[in-house]
Amino acid sequence: MNNMTVFNKVVITFILLALFSLETLANNNKITVGLEPFPPLVNEDGSGFVIDMLNGLQDNSALTFNYQIMTYARAKRELKRRRINIIGLTPKDSETQKFYQFAQELSWHFDTTVDLYSTSPNHFDINNLPERSIGTLIGNADFFAELAQVPREKFIEVGSLTQLIMMMARGRIKVIIFERVAMMSTIKSLQNDLRTKIPAEINSPESPQKIYYKKFKIIAASLAVAKSETGDLLKKQLDELLSENTSQYFKKIAPYAKLPNSGVIE
Q1: The two domains 2-111+221-255 and 113-217 share their CATH topology (first three levels equal)
Q2: In sequence order, which ranges of 43-160 are alpha helices (DSSP H)?
Q3: Which residue of 23, 97, 172, 229 has the smallest Cβ count within 10 Å?
Q4: 118 burial type by CB count under 10 A (0-12 exposed, 13-18 middle, 19+ buried)
Q5: pLDDT at position 207, please?
Q6: Residue ranges of the chain with per-residue pLDDT less than 50
Q7: How far apart are CA 266 and CA 70, in angstroms?
Q8: Class assignment of domain 2-111+221-255?
Q9: What is the CB neighbour count within 10 angstroms for residue 198?
Q10: 27 sits in which H/E element
Q11: What integer pLDDT is reported at residue 22 of this predicted model?
């Protein structure tokens, strides 16, 4: 009798959990989105072209998005712990094996260009750079190291593009690797700081440092959800909503893709 009672309790528990799960999937339309700053696609103030696109989905569905701006590393941790529902932007099909153990990307994506940036084109031979000389944002070094096939020890991660650019201008790192639109727009916004806040022995105000770029790779950017039953249903819903052409949200950044493969940022 006691065994039967225990068995019945276990069965009832599983049924309740299943019902709760289904109810959550059916009725919980508030979706928490963790996004890495990626200006102008995702700005730190919660605006941006990707956010505009997601806001457009709210008009055609019952979904409501709650945006949280955070580092990519934190976004991945929060998704793994199931504390948020969507993260981005992810390098579609280019993340690490560990990432794909708990996450899955949407079918939706758009192409981005990743470049190397430096104050000297001689530094673009990253295989010969010393440890901690390649900068990127927190959470990005692992997959960039895999893509570039260079040791992870060569990388250093920081919290913002502004910090990365100023570190490079001061000679603390040799190269930055990151997405073109975000990097170039941030560099242009920092032109005055690059002229006035860099010590004279490094960068004369009369002859400010030039920042060179070199195309590294075209990477599709996407969004990711949890690798779970709930994530499967959310992915299906989002893929259906995003199946229509979303290029209108990214018209303003299209010219960046047409730039030469290398050059100087003016």
Answers
A1: yes
A2: 49-58, 72-80, 141-148
A3: 97
A4: buried
A5: 44
A6: 13, 15-27, 204-207
A7: 29
A8: alpha beta
A9: 18
A10: helix 2-27
A11: 38
User: Domain map of the chain by residue range?
Assistant: 2-111+221-255, 113-217
pLDDT in the model for residue 18? 45
d(CA 86, CA 65): 10
Query: What CA–CA distance (Å, rounded) separates 228 from 210?
Result: 47
| DSSP one-letter code for 97 | T
Cis peptide before 89 (omega within 30 of 0): yes
Burial class (CB in 10 A: 0-12, 13-18, 19+), 106: buried
What pLDDT is attached to residue 216? 97
CA distance 68 to 44: 9
The tokens 């390098």 sit on which residue? 91
pLDDT (0 to 100) of residue 25: 43
Number of neighbours of residue 135 by Cβ within 10 angstroms: 25
Structure tokens at 97: 């094996």
In the block, residue with structure tokens 């229509």:
244
Give the pLDDT score at 24: 42
Angle subtended at Cα 48 by Cα 156 and Cα 241, rounded to the nearest 5 degrees: 110
Question: Global pTM?
Answer: 0.83
Q: Are 103 and 224 in contact, with CB atoms under 8 Å apart?
A: yes
125: its two tokens: 């031979």
CATH topology for 113-217 is D-Maltodextrin-Binding Protein; domain 2 (3.40.190)
Residue 259 to residue 130: CA distance in whole angstroms: 29
| Alpha carbons 225 and 210: distance in angstroms, whole number | 40
Q: Outline where DSSP puts E strands in 119-251.
A: 134-137, 155-158, 175-179, 212-226
Q: What is the pLDDT of residues 61-83, one digit of tens each?
A: 889 999 999 999 999 999 999 99
Residue 100 corresponds to which tokens in the numbers above? 């794909």
Alpha carbon distance 141, 156 (integer Å)? 7
